[in-house]
Amino acid sequence: MEDNILRVSESVLWTGCIDHDLVTFDVVMETKYGTTYNSYFIDADKKVLIETVKESFWPEYERKIRSLVDPADIQYIVLNHTEPDHSGCVGHLLEIAPNAVIVGTGNAIRYLHDMTPVSFKSIQVKDGDEISLGNTTLRFISAPNLHWPDTMYTYLVEERVLFTCDSFGAHYADERMFDDLVDHWDDSFKYYFDVILKPFSKFMLRAIERIRPLDIRVIAPGHGPILRSSWKKYVELSEKYSLEAIELPQKLRVYMPYVSAYHNTGVLAEAIARGLKSKPGIEVVLEDIEHSNLGEIDMQLAMASGIIVGCPTINQNILLPVYRLFAVINPLRDRGKLAGGFGSYGWSGEGMKMIRTNLENLKLHYTDDVFVKFAPHDIDLEKAFAYGERFAEELIRKAAEN
Ligand code: FEO
Fold first, then answer.
1. Atom of ligand 1 at shortest range from CA of 148
2. Rounded to the nearest whole angstrom, what is the distance from the C-alpha of residue 296 to the centroid of ligand 1?
3. Contacts for 67-71 with beta carbons within 8 Å, 24 or more apart?
């Protein structure tokens, strides 16, 4: 089958790869529509690649590149972001393109040095820097923390194409690739935003302000459809979602993930939730996570400013769903969030310490907890209710300080 290469503008060609088989991204994000790893070739006087693709797609990617250019003629490889779904082929590429210079932010260059054993030449760029390609120009735009500290955007000035990597992207695989040819993917766009970008909403808004003055014809993201007809809609949606994320009363949202073997921990959870909700402005999301999807848990963690984890102690240990929960707590994002624990136990109650220690190691601000022996009695439920009240008051106090 002939490789699919698509023209985006006079000198830009899409040279990405389509991954229909991806089931989860970054191990936690469900990708029921697959994804695309978008790389772009700029056929200017000086030849450029914008990002690469995931390493497992190297044979297909190499074929595409060789069909367009002698790799020795590639002058620059621009990395707007170095996560391996975009930088995965850089090592292979440098072997066949020894003259290529990596272009990225200082963080991107540092991360790439850590990721690849191959040595490379690099240019570190800042906001507003330009590189002439002879007949056209690349301009770099500061857009950090979307969703790594290394991110930036690249604008092909004369052709008005903006390359944004993860921003304005979606995990959505469709060979037609252009927004006006691909069927409805708004739910995929929203899910991608919620999981990948929403925690960085304030940086999204800053990036949107940076690109507002630009005369844009096409937004070429790193995943999903190329936005040649509807880029304004997806920028506006990103702005709307970001504003909602910042303005919603999520500062006072408490997420209570728990598991319960005989519903004793569950009863305790309900009593704590009642105590929390007795205080004004507190929203509680109570979830039995025994069968929950990690992507959904991750999204709830991102939206919460308070996290109270419940688990019974069984055989001197806590249960697997809670260890999976710990795996998706992100200290970069969740650091300092108010946290607590609860659960029932029969003998020595090791779970109490395990919950506390894990949450503290993950940089959450652990306050207090409530644990009961076997089944909670009325007095225990009163304690749990009071615990919920105290936690809510502390959260309100903390929010007022910010
Ligand atoms: Fe698509 Fe953050 O990588």
1. 2
2. 18
3. 67/3, 67/5, 68/5, 68/13, 68/15, 68/41, 68/43, 69/41, 69/43, 71/96, 71/97
